[in-house]
Amino acid sequence: MGGTRTRMTASERSAQVLEAAVHAFAESGYAATKTDEIARLAGVSQPYVIRLFGTKQQLFLAALHEVCGRIEAVFRGAEIAPDADAAEALRTLGQGFDVFLAERELPLMLLHGAAASADPAIGDPMRERFGRIYRLIGELTGADTLESRRFVATGMLLTIMTAMQVAGSEAIPLPWATEILDDLRSSAAPGC
């Protein structure tokens, strides 16, 4: 049965490489990830990856921006009631963490971005994007600095627990992790 194959457009191929990069960087981090591994995952050649994105650093930044954009989109998509107070709005926004726990690459990529921030070319954009996410939380919920900080702190705790595989869909059930997660659920803490 013969069929015609549809060629991908340049933008579709670029998106495919970017998706492979997010996956690879989330698993191995910036320093340990090789562009030939990303190329293999995307089904393209390593020179093609470089032609699309320039350098590994530029590809990492593109992947980081992609992930931060996805996080912002999840928060913007939260259905916060118009009359909700800050605490209720934060609880609604916190339901977005279900997405982050299911899409494990999002929190892992965020952690790798933070870890690579000693490099000014990565650190400056990482700090800017993290700050945007922090500001967005306040804008969407009306939360003050303390409430926003607590929300981010809880979110980072969940991010670290996801990286350690003690939270999320593939969680290894450990008593201390279960205790924390149960406490977050029972207290309806923002970020849970």
UniProtKB/TrEMBL annotation:
Endpoints of the signal sequence: none
PROSITE patterns to which the protein is assigned, alphabetical: HTH_TETR_2
Residue ranges of every copy of the HTH tetR-type domain listed in the record: 11-71
Origin organism lineage: Bacteria, Bacillati, Actinomycetota, Actinomycetes, Mycobacteriales
PANTHER family: HTH-TYPE TRANSCRIPTIONAL REGULATOR BETI (PTHR30055:SF234), HTH-TYPE TRANSCRIPTIONAL REGULATOR RUTR (PTHR30055)
Natural source organism: Nocardia rhizosphaerihabitans
DNA-binding region: 34-53
Pfam families: TetR_N (PF00440)
Record's keyword terms, sorted: DNA-binding, Transcription, Transcription regulation
UniProt name for this protein: TetR family transcriptional regulator
